[in-house]
Specification:
Blueprint: H1 12-28, H2 31-48, H3 58-76, H4 86-89, H5 91-95, H6 114-118, H7 121-133, H8 136-147, H9 152-159, H10 164-187
Helix pairs in contact: 1-2, 1-3, 2-3, 7-10, 8-10
């Protein structure tokens, strides 16, 4: 028994193309790559449509295919992403945040209403700009772990990291850099 009537594959581009493109673009941050991933997703969907069981909507099924295509994209391109260097890891970023006794000395900006920001198109422009300012390996890590909800083990495999400890250190510093950028470029604006 299918959940909903199944739209014909001929309508997928019209029905789901924009949504799939936005989903991919947010994760890979390249218009050309997002377009290619959507094309690959629709082609894979057409080729595998006879195996579609109808246990989910076509939309959900296509997003699932796209998620796998995005992970494959990161896996194929990991050689372009350098390893996590000390400069990327932001030791300089950490240095000024703690005093010599290890006490926190930075005032964090109060994010008054982060939920409202999520619905604001300008916020997403600032967010994408902040993400693009990160080293590519850090931005990729953030997208895979946070936006794609990839497991720690799978993130290590995709990005070629040796240990989950290395992953957590890199992810923590990535989030810190992203927060610092958002603090100055979005949440402290007048």
């Amino acid at each position: 028994m299918t959940l909903l009537t199944t739209p014909e594959p001929e309508t997928w581009l019209h029905d789901y193309g924009d949504m799939l493109y936005r989903y991919a673009l947010l994760r890979v941050r390249s218009e050309a790559t997002a377009e290619d991933l959507v094309q690959d997703t629709l082609l894979a969907g057409l080729q595998g449509f006879q195996n579609f069981s109808g246990q989910s909507t076509v939309r959900t099924w296509l997003v699932g295919i796209l998620k796998h295509k995005i992970i494959d994209h990161f896996r194929k391109n990991r050689h372009e992403t350098s390893t996590f260097s000390e400069a990327d890891m932001g030791d300089d970023l950490l240095a000024y945040q703690f005093d010599q006794n290890g006490n926190w000395q930075v005032e964090l900006v109060e994010w008054a209403s982060p939920d409202q920001s999520l619905d604001n198109e300008q916020f997403w422009q600032v967010f994408n700009d902040c993400l693009s300012r990160l080293p590519k390996n850090m931005a990729d890590l953030f997208m895979l772990r946070t936006m794609n909800d990839l497991s720690s083990e799978d993130c290590c495999k995709v990005l070629g990291l040796d240990s989950t400890n290395q992953l957590w250190v890199a992810l923590s510093r990535t989030r810190m850099k992203l927060r610092q950028c958002l603090d100055t470029r979005w949440f402290t604006k007048e």
